[in-house]
Amino acid sequence: MLSLLYQEGPSTEGIFRRSGSAKTCKELKEKLDSGAEVDLACESIFVTASLFKDFLRNIPGSILSSQLCDKWVSVMDQGNNEEKIRSIQRLIDQLPRANVVLLRYIFGVLHGIEMRSEENQMNAFNLAICIAPSLLWPPVSSTPDIESEFTKKISSLVQFLTENCCRIFGEEITSLFGEI
């Protein structure tokens, strides 16, 4: 999925914003969940993006860990960018290794899409609005007002992560997928 998103996402206007066919997504998810072979290259890239966001939303406790939710939310309230980056790196160090590996690939994809935002209309802000709710959610539900404020803060964090991913994850994030 990520490889396809890395290849096609940068040249696809509105990637992650437009949804794939709900019926197709449901059918493919059932096939994937049953272990059947699925050739996503034959599907719309919007279906792949929708399936990927659904996958992220189904990670128990979220990929950024709901247990660290308060700490993630407070990162953007810190001083300068260097302090924010150091705080983010400390939080990343507290995540399971599998989460960190997946995060590096996710932000490698987002970086590639952002680099061609003039073509695809998906700058770091737009990407964050679309992807942030799939990366972190609070451990307990709350009022709509609190949830709206939370979403804004997490979107701001994801925008910052996207814009600074090379400094946070290392320059090699731009070549994780090799020459595709």
TrEMBL record:
<protein>
    <submittedName>
        <fullName>Rho GTPase-activating protein 20</fullName>
    </submittedName>
</protein>
<keyword id="KW-0343">GTPase activation</keyword>
<keyword id="KW-0597">Phosphoprotein</keyword>
<feature type="domain" description="Rho-GAP">
    <location>
        <begin position="1"/>
        <end position="169"/>
    </location>
</feature>
<dbReference type="InterPro" id="IPR000198">
    <property type="entry name" value="RhoGAP_dom"/>
</dbReference>
<dbReference type="GO" id="GO:0035023">
    <property type="term" value="P:regulation of Rho protein signal transduction"/>
</dbReference>
<dbReference type="GO" id="GO:0005096">
    <property type="term" value="F:GTPase activator activity"/>
</dbReference>
<dbReference type="Pfam" id="PF00620">
    <property type="entry name" value="RhoGAP"/>
</dbReference>
<dbReference type="GO" id="GO:0007165">
    <property type="term" value="P:signal transduction"/>
</dbReference>
<dbReference type="InterPro" id="IPR008936">
    <property type="entry name" value="Rho_GTPase_activation_prot"/>
</dbReference>
<dbReference type="InterPro" id="IPR047886">
    <property type="entry name" value="ARHGAP20-like_RhoGAP"/>
</dbReference>
